[in-house]
Recover the amino acids of this structure.
């Protein structure tokens, strides 16, 4: 591989993280706002929307192995991953416009499914290209945590910006004004995303270098099975699946839980979601620091336990008490982004291990695996709408819910994530690649030239 700087400046990494703003701004409403919007405002229904999102996410998983192999084969003067990131602008921009600003006051399941599939294709290209590119920016164990710390911070800032839009529209409407229609707030999110995509991606590809391998990798489907022989890969995949499912459930059910179980207003519920992600901004820096002190895998296990304990606080917060509700969501928010920082930094270390064993640079393919497991987690999170519908939960605003429906909502929103996170912490605690082992691998790679 061509010469790789050990440490990049903060300005360079900030430019690299800039595309996270629109991509995270798209990722949040895909989990939180769009399912609610299409189930309620566009009249498709809760169970149907849950099934559509599940099917599309499962189809979307197939994209990643193909894209990862194609990216590793790419070799241009422009870069290996940069061309793919640029190509995602048009795909995501068009599909975002159609999803967030649909014509008319209702939509069909076919309309939702078609544009959802296209937006996930563009999203897959952009996330896989950027996270793979991040892994080759530095060979250093601790610097990789720093790089993904910037990446995660960019994601959280993007989430906060788009999450603030409904609140901002409400405040601009003035005291005593009628509630801002959901169609208007969703449209504002879409316009925000479409405007930022070309600006931020253009900045990143202009300002940030991309090291190139000496020769392209010609991987095959069988390479993915070879990855699974590594204990480090298997533990990362299981942890990413379990750890990704918990915040996916939080995003999908938060508005329903706080309105129906905790008795808070739509505006207060939106503020709690905002507080959750705002706490994640502090968490991105915190978990980078903790990883530097105790190692990435131990920091990851610690974050999982803290995450699980914090959900108990959400459950114990009294109904109607906005202040304690906000405190509980801040507690949940601090560890929620640990996997975004640490698991990807750990996968970059696994890339060194794989390169030592195979002699190939299969960065794109490795990150395709982790992207796929993350998507399985979010697909299963969207599927929680299905048992919720079976329990008799009604998605309409101010609907009278049965005790059985509220009990199911509480189990899905609180109890299920706790169990998932405790298992994830147990799995990752025995991760075999610590700092000493990664430095040994880097030394052997350098000795080979």
């Amino acid at each position: 591989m061509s010469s790789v700087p050990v440490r990049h400046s903060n300005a360079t990494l900030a430019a690299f993280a800039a595309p996270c703003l629109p991509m995270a701004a798209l990722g949040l409403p895909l989990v939180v706002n769009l399912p609610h919007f299409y189930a309620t405002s566009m009249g498709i229904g809760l169970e149907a929307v849950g099934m559509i999102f599940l099917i599309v996410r499962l189809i979307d998983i197939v994209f990643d192995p193909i894209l990862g192999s194609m990216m590793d084969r790419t070799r241009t003067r422009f870069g290996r991953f940069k061309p793919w990131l640029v190509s995602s602008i048009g795909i995501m921009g068009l599909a975002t416009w159609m999803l967030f600003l649909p014509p008319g006051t209702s939509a069909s399941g076919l309309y939702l499914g078609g544009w959802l599939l296209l937006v996930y294709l563009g999203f897959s290209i952009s996330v896989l290209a950027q996270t793979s590119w991040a892994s080759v920016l530095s060979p250093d164990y601790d610097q990789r945590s720093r790089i993904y710390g910037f990446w995660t911070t960019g994601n959280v800032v993007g989430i906060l910006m788009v999450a603030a839009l409904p609140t901002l529209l409400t405040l601009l409407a003035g005291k005593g004004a009628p509630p801002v229609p959901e169609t208007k707030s969703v449209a504002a999110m879409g316009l925000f995303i479409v405007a930022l995509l070309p600006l931020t991606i253009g900045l990143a590809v202009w300002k940030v270098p991309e090291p190139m391998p000496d020769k392209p990798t010609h991987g095959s489907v069988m390479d993915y099975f070879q990855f699974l022989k590594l204990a480090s890969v298997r533990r990362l995949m299981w942890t990413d699946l379990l750890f990704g499912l918990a915040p996916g459930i939080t995003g999908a059910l938060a508005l329903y839980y706080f309105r129906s179980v905790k008795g808070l207003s739509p505006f207060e519920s939106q503020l709690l979601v905002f507080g959750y992600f705002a706490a994640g901004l502090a968490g991105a820096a915190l978990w980078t620091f903790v990883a530097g002190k105790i190692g990435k895998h131990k920091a990851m296990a610690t974050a999982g336990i803290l995450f699980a304990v914090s959900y108990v606080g959400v459950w114990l917060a009294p109904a109607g008490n906005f202040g304690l509700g906000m405190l509980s969501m801040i507690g949940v928010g601090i560890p929620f982004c640990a996997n975004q920082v640490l698991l990807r930094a750990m996968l970059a270390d696994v890339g060194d291990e794989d390169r030592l064993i195979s002699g190939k640079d299969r960065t794109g393919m490795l990150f395709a695996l982790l992207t796929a497991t993350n998507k399985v987690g979010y697909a299963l999170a969207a599927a929680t709408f299905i048992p919720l519908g079976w329990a008799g939960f009604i998605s309409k605003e101010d609907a009278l819910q049965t005790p059985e429906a509220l009990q199911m909502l509480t189990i899905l929103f609180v109890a299920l994530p706790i169990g998932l996170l405790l298992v994830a912490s147990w799995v990752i605690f025995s991760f075999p690649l610590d700092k000493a082992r990664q430095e040994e691998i880097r030394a052997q790679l350098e000795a080979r030239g």
